[in-house]
Amino acid sequence: MIPSRNIVLVSLLVLAVVSRFLPHPPNFSPILAVSLFGGVYFANRWVSLLLPLAIMALSDAFIGFHALVPVVYGMFVLFALAGRWLKNRLSIGTLAITGLLGSSAFFLVTNFFVWATSGMYSLDADGLATCYIAAVPFFQNSLLGDAIYIPTLFGSFYLMEKSGFVPEQQIA
Asked: What is the pLDDT of residues 140-171, one digit of tens each?
């Protein structure tokens, strides 16, 4: 019996989300990959946009909320939109570039808001540079997480489709 596409998609996403609760370095997260994946594979725009928000809200209810929740969540909605754009252009190259641009955008935007709102840095060019420099280890973890989670999610689903384990059709 071939499992439905929905079951396989949701199972892959659940595994990615569970990994948020396992011990891991800061910012080593599956959520960018989940956002892109949902944007590509869920036909319903609202499901693809709300999925990363629901995952973040559920896991943050246990892990803890923070002052930058609106910025972080907004970035994941943008990544889901990027996944929707990627849907008809999906290749290893476009996926790699989108992942790298996503990691970079997340780093630049969230750390700009840390600089602007935290009170930890002077509100001048030196403070902004110091903030970005201090965040480089987190950026490295984000890049590594995305380099692992994006190919794992997309690659495993692709292999399941090609092997006939999952029917090749878009879900709702």
From this structure: 999 999 999 999 989 998 998 888 877 766 54
Nearest CA among 84, 70, 90 for reference residue 40: 84
At 143 the pLDDT is: 96
Entry pTM: 0.88
Do the beta carbons of residue 150 and residue 99 sit within 8 Å?
yes
Reduced to 3 states (helix: H, G, I; strand: E, B; else coil), residue 54 is helix
- Cα dihedral value 155, 157, 160, 166, nearest 10: -160
DSSP state, residue 121: S
User: Mean of the pLDDT values across residues 106-115?
Assistant: 98
Q: Helix (H, G, I), strand (E, B), or coil: what is residue 118?
A: coil
Q: How many CA atoms does the CB half-sphere of 50 hold within 13 Å? A: 5
Q: Identify the CA nearest to 38 among candidates 50, 27, 29, 26.
A: 50
CA distances from 25 to 35, 37, 55, 109, 138 (A): 20, 22, 19, 20, 8
Residue 59 vs residue 86, higher pLDDT: 86
Q: Burial letters for 22-48: b for 16+ Cβ neighbours within 10 Å, e otherwise?
A: eeeeebbbbbbbbbbbbbbbbeeeebb
